[in-house]
Amino acid sequence: MKIILTGTTGFIGHEILTQCLHNPHITSIVALSRRPLPATVTNIPNLTVKLVDDFLTYPESLLNELRGTEACIWAIGVNRTKDTETARKVNIEYTMAAMEAFGTYLSSSSSVEGGEGKKKFRFVYLSGGMSERDQSRSLWMAGEMRKIRGQVENELTAYEKTNHTNVEVYIARPGMVLARGMSLRTLVFGMGPSIWVDDLAKVLVDVAVNGNEDEDGEMVLENERMLRWKQ
């Protein structure tokens, strides 16, 4: 399986990359990044790093190199900033530009032989546990950022409904993401829902590889559900 990753220089994205490298079902990884990745991973045969100057545009030359990709884990996002314009550009515009490019171009290259016909392109979006889809709601804490995340979710869901034969969208809403070695008890009781970063990454990679639509047809992965993932 060939997969696209973004945000691989970040805390969560780096762990996602690590999990992908250890997954036997993933044979090719394309990391889209503004900055070069560490030398410790760039010499790995099944990893290709493509430097991207502008995440709003996807030239045909790049899309041709991405042909055959079956899924993308999107881990680019701004969580804290006073610059709302930048936050909206990175969280909303970047995400939807990728969704539209991949959903249009790459889904057409993901056909399979046999009775299943055409495979859907899976887009796994890393959102947040407090995202708010109701754009009219008044919020007392981090309201602007939560609504921005919620708007991304709304737009991704709308895109999937319009292009349901081509794409599957999965939305992950983790709580506090923790590195191993931190005091889980202290952070859980003090800050609320949380998840270890490696557990989160394993869920995202598993969904990208296998998909997992729940009983109600919703493809939203809340923190509690990810904690119980395939136990």
TrEMBL record:
Residues 7-207 form the NAD(P)-binding domain. InterPro entries: NAD(P)-bd_dom, NAD(P)-bd_dom_sf. SUPFAM superfamilies: NAD(P)-binding Rossmann-fold domains (SSF51735). Gene3D superfamilies: NAD(P)-binding Rossmann-like Domain. Pfam families: NAD_binding_10. It comes from the Eukaryota. This is NAD(P)-binding domain-containing protein. The lineage of its organism: Eukaryota, Fungi, Dikarya, Ascomycota, Pezizomycotina.
